[in-house]
TrEMBL record:
It comes from the Bacteria. The keyword Transferase applies. It holds the Pfam family Glycos_transf_2. It comes from Chryseobacterium carnipullorum. The gene is kfoC_4. InterPro entries: Glyco_trans_2-like, Nucleotide-diphossugar_trans. Residues 4-100 form the Glycosyltransferase 2-like domain. This is Chondroitin polymerase. GO terms for molecular function: hexosyltransferase activity. Keywords: Transferase.
């Protein structure tokens, strides 16, 4: 098994060396691909040093050397990759020694196109911890509640399984066959500056046969610090709702072009509609909400059903 590890780099001069070296510890990692995204700090210099120090580290920038976001950077990394398997790592996170233990076994089955695992959390700064606990407050372990594979993963991510599937798994804990991405023409939505990872994971779970690996202990660690973009987003604010609206609209547009379960398609539409309603103001919001409830009362059962009532 030969793996390309793709690391988008933005404003991560303090952390990227640890991320790279955590990936190089594995014999299966054929290359570590750094995509430097016009960082305002000295990350580019650090990346150049790493590429000179390690033969397996390859450094790229966007053709215009501009800033294009994590989704575009990961797409460029996939394009530049040469291995049969793709793994992702954020520049401020790192792999643990058990990162590919499950993959070594599960990918012997040619039906398995992707394996996902659990990741843990480490607070790198006090301010990062404060922001995280007040705005996000996830569990230490990002994982799922039970082993799953195939379409059950897709339904679980949308909250449509009889048992609660769990939190979410992240890109740091996902390994996928490059052929599965190519066959299904799957790329990150470059129009999404946040949530492009969740967007791809849900689409991947529908098109590909994913299987859970190690879900009871972390295989990677996410670093929480002052500059984490996600910790700056406070739930149910207009900014938060706008980003959620863009995310669900991306899934909705995709669902219209693909043959997916009707209940899943309806769920995606209702989530999109709920966040669209959250962005309305004044009497127009009440009128639109009433019309939406009359049309389909299930909108009141969406995961974010209270977002449009909190402003």
């Amino acid at each position: 098994m030969k793996i390309s590890v793709i690391i988008p780099v933005y404003n991560a001069e303090k952390y990227v060396s640890k991320a790279v070296e955590s990936a190089l510890q594995f014999r299966e990692v054929e290359e570590v691909i750094l995509i430097e995204d016009q960082s305002p700090d000295n990350a580019l210099m650090i990346c150049r040093e790493l590429s000179l120090k390690y033969d397996r580290v390859k450094l790229f920038q966007h053709p215009d050397q501009g800033n294009h976001g994590a989704g575009s950077s990961r797409n460029l990394g996939i394009e530049k990759s040469s291995s049969d398997f793709i793994a992702f790592l954020d520049a401020d996170d790192y792999f643990l020694p058990n990162r590919f233990d499950a993959e070594r076994v599960l990918f012997k089955d040619p039906r398995i196109e992707g394996v996902f695992n659990a990741i843990g959390t480490e607070f790198l700064t006090e301010k990062g911890e404060e922001d995280f606990l007040s705005n996000i407050n996830d569990e230490y372990l990002l994982t799922v509640n039970y082993p799953a594979e195939g379409q059950e993963v897709f339904k679980g991510l949308l909250g449509q399984t009889p048992k609660k599937f769990g939190t979410f798994f992240t890109l740091d804990a996902l390994t996928v066959r490059k052929s599965a991405l190519e066959k299904n023409k799957l790329k990150f939505n470059e129009e999404l500056r946040v949530h492009q990872d969740s967007d791809l994971i849900i689409k991947l779970a529908h098109h590909c046969h994913l299987k859970s690996g190690i879900i009871d202990q972390p295989v990677a660690i996410r670093g929480i610090h002052d500059d984490n973009r996600i910790t700056k987003i406070i739930k149910y604010t207009p900014q938060y709702n706008q980003r959620q609206s863009l995310f669900w609209n991306s899934l909705y547009q995709w669902s219209r072009k693909n043959r997916i379960d009707p209940d899943a398609k309806r769920h995606i539409f209702l989530q999109k509609k709920a966040f669209e309603l959250s962005l309305k103001e004044g009497p127009a919001k009440a009128t639109a909400l009433f019309a939406a409830i009359v049309k389909d009362p299930r909108i009141l059962k969406t995961k974010y059903r209270f977002t449009y009532l909190k402003q």
